Structures are given as C-alpha cells and as structure tokens.
Amino acid sequence: MTADAEMLVGVVIERRKIDNPWQEYAWRPAAVFVAPPHMGSGATSEAWRVLRSGEDWVHYHARNFSLELFKGETDGYQENLSQDVPSIFVALQPGEDAEDMEVEPFLATVCPYEAMEYFESGDEIVEGVPMPDDILAWVRAFVDEHHVDTPFKKRKNKRFEDRPQWSRPRGRFSERP
Questions:
Q1: Which residues, at least 6 apart from 37, have a Cβ–Cβ distance to it below 8 Å?
Q2: Is the residue at 96 inside a domain?
Q3: Is residue 163 part of a domain?
Q4: What is the domain range of residue 68?
Q5: Three-state secondary-structure class, residue 86
Q6: What is the pLDDT tens value at each position of the chain, 177 positions in all?
C-alpha cells in the first residue's frame, strides 16, 4: 500500500547501563527528529552514530525512516493528536546478526493502533516519544484535510418471527419443511 504522505525522520535510541545480572543495558527510543532529505534512510548498524553521552548512557542516531500517513488511518492519528502529549511510536526488535546492535528499530508511526499491534505481541519494545512541533503540524494538517467522520450505525437484528422456520436448529433428526 502506498502512503498518501511521507516525511523522513531520524530515530534516536538510548542505551542506559543497568544493574541487572542478566542484562547489561536497557534500550529505549529517546527521540525522533525531521531528517534532512540528503540523509536518506538507512537500515544497517553502520548508520548508528553517537549523538551525545553521559556517565551511564549513550544516545545514538540509529536510522532514518519514512514516516507514512494514510487517509484510511486518520481515526488513529486523531486519537493520537487528542492526547496531552502526541507521540511518535518507535518499535525495536532484537538484532538478528552478529554485526547488528543489540536492538534494531524497524517502525516509526503516529498511529497508536498500529503500535498497539506490535506491543501486544510482546516480542518488540514499543514506546512513544514526544512528537516534535513541525511533525505535529504536518500530521494535524493531514488529518484536517483527509479525516471524514463516519457516524455509528447500529445494526438491526431481524425479528425472530420474520425468520424462515428452517433457519433455526430443530434437533438431530428433524428435517427441513
């Protein structure tokens, strides 16, 4: 499915040292920014660059994504925009190859329903990061232009008397009239 609108964004991942006997670091999405067009999108671990670091943490520019918006998902975008702090959801999965980082980002979306699908699987780390103002304005303009409210219509059941007699089960040995 092709996107109705796209914007190139960079994803920042934080690696923080933790006190745990089974795991040395905790990984989480830290920020998202609008990436300049000349950066392109990259999927390899060579793209990871240190942006800043502290005593027990490091922020990496992990990779760029094409943030895609679709006309059919404006309900989700509107739900996100109605929150106190609208978010961009970033999903991380464990690195598969030896040369990969411990985690690899594979999705950036503004649709909370799409993010929830990955979160419920339990295999990925999915967290929201605050949406920058320029991306917020872009998403809001897209929703204003393309969102169509669809009123709820309750489905009416057929009355029991209006159904054909043979439509309900009569037992094991009965025959249809």
A1: 8
A2: yes
A3: no
A4: 5-146
A5: coil
A6: 787 889 999 999 999 999 999 988 899 999 999 987 666 655 444 568 899 999 999 999 988 989 999 998 989 999 999 999 999 999 998 877 766 778 889 999 999 999 998 888 778 889 999 999 999 999 999 999 987 877 778 877 766 666 666 655 556 665 555
Distance CA 36, CA 66 (A): 12
For residue 165, tell me if it sits in a domain.
no
Q: What is the pTM of this model?
A: 0.77
Q: Where are the alpha helices (DSSP H) in 50-132?
A: 74-81, 112-121
Say if 156 falls within a structural domain: no
Q: Are 3 and 114 in contact (CB under 8 A)?
A: no
Residue 154 corresponds to which amino acid? Answer: K
Which residues, in sequence order, are bridge partners of residue 17? 25
H or E element in which residue 134 lies: helix 133-146
Q: Which of the 8 DSSP states describes residue 153?
A: -
Domain count, the chain: 1
Q: How far apart are CA 58 and CA 16, in angstroms?
A: 7
